[in-house]
């Protein structure tokens, strides 16, 4: 059960990644410490940051660079991949279009999901069927983000092995038919260069704005 907390936990998962495919990983001291931290974070905060994740800095910097380039484009260009029901609710969302507690959020975004083939999950998946929308400019954003998503999906599987151990299950409990084929969500967010909104100072996050 989540409780009040003052900061989001930051967990160094490098010991877990070093042993993720070791049949005896559950008995490793370093893995055990990570598992304990994952357990505590999930119970008390409900989410966490990770470090020691192994994602190359070069890819992270390029993701930031290309997404900044996209959000710097004119609105007319960005609206070429406008989000819509026909597009499976994927694509570009303008500043203020997303609503939180009845108030427009001060950000813009590209919403991406795992691509769903027609009938893949029956009638339940129909609203989300279709491919992701990617802009023509920057020209290599699609390739980069698909690579980044693949890396993050693989990383999440390894983290889930630690969470499985935290629940007292086998490390591979969330693999195979049960949860080995995840549905992922990616939201690329851009914040405008403003310091005030509605006559008030902008908060550190966009919730409610």
Automatic annotation (TrEMBL):
Keyword Transferase annotated: no
UniProt superkingdom: Eukaryota
Pfam family for this entry, one: DIOX_N
Molecular functions per Gene Ontology: metal ion binding; oxidoreductase activity
Keywords per UniProt: Iron, Metal-binding, Oxidoreductase
Residue span, Non-haem dioxygenase N-terminal domain: 8-135
Name listed for the protein in its UniProt record: Non-haem dioxygenase N-terminal domain-containing protein
Organism: Rhododendron griersonianum
Phylogenetic placement of the source organism: Eukaryota, Viridiplantae, Streptophyta, Embryophyta, Tracheophyta
